Amino acid sequence: MNGCSPLFREVVCGILITAAPLASHDAVAAQARVRVGWEAGLNQSKVSWALTPDVGLPEYEPAYRLAWSAGVTLDVPLAPKLSLATGVRYIEYGSLVEFGPVKVTTADHPEGTGEVFYFDLHQAWSYLAIPAQVRVRPFPARGVFLGFGPEVGYLLSVRERSEFDFTVGNGPPALQHLEAAVARPEAQIFEKVGTLDSQHNYSPWNLMLSGSAGCEFPFVGHISFVEARYTHGLVDIAKNDAVKSSTRGFELLLGVRW
């Protein structure tokens, strides 16, 4: 621009000075726009089962079982390092209660009659849930985020499969084997779950609190992410005064946002 007139240089400098903040604003707006995406993952979960003291029976804590979740996500900017992560997702909680072996005793045989019984109960709860996590990105350049917030779930169905085995002595096979009708694995992956529906035994609504940590990185023009999330049920979902139940879940999620 050395060979140009002073008037031309002044005009060009004025344009650059005016355009610079606009370009910076556009770049920030592009990074801070609302992003829609999807997520899916595995959920190592259970529904806790606590008997009230007046029942007079020992408590049996269900084991964690593998389930899954998937849904549509929405990331809404709130501040340069804050956003609201929400959306709609389908999530399952599965649990297993194993009872036994238990020896059968009588007054004449206090050490046992030789009869033993076992009881297994497999259950899976299906929810349509809406999370609302506030997420902070303390290191934006590294893509690390932390999230915390509530989640409301509506119960879609409860699937269960029970088995009861009764044996006499140590050698003979089971004399009785009662099992619910088993269909395709609908409610819990990697597990045969029956078609019996006990949804009426549980509240239609569930309130959970979740915390998460993850990392975002660019992927063919979009933003992909890996997230670890823990979801803890805050309310009793059982419609039974003798039993208190609440959900627990550890999730590993993968997703993409546009």
Give an overview of the whole structure.
Strands 1-2-3-4-5-8-9-10 form an 8-stranded antiparallel beta barrel. The two termini are 41 Å apart. Mean pLDDT is 76; it is low at 15-30, 171-188 and 190-196. The chain is 10% helix and 60% strand. By secondary structure, the chain is mainly beta.
In brief, what are we looking at here?
It contains 1 helix and 10 strands.
Total helices: the number is 1
Give the structural class: mainly beta
Major beta sheet, strand line-up: 1-2-3-4-5-8-9-10
Q: What is the CATH first-level class name of the largest domain?
A: Mainly Beta
Q: Let me know the number of strands.
A: 10
Largest sheet: 8 strands, antiparallel, barrel
**Any idea what the CATH architecture of the largest domain is?**
Beta Barrel
Query: Can you give the helix content as a percent range?
Result: 10-25%
Please state the average pLDDT score.
76
- Gyration radius (Cα, Å) is 28 Å
CATH topology of the largest domain: Porin
Residues in β-strands, percent: over 45%
| Whole-number count of domains | 2
- Order of SSEs, N→C? HEEEEEEEEEE
Shape: elongated
User: Span from first to last CA?
Assistant: 41 Å
Poorly predicted regions are 15-30, 171-188, 190-196
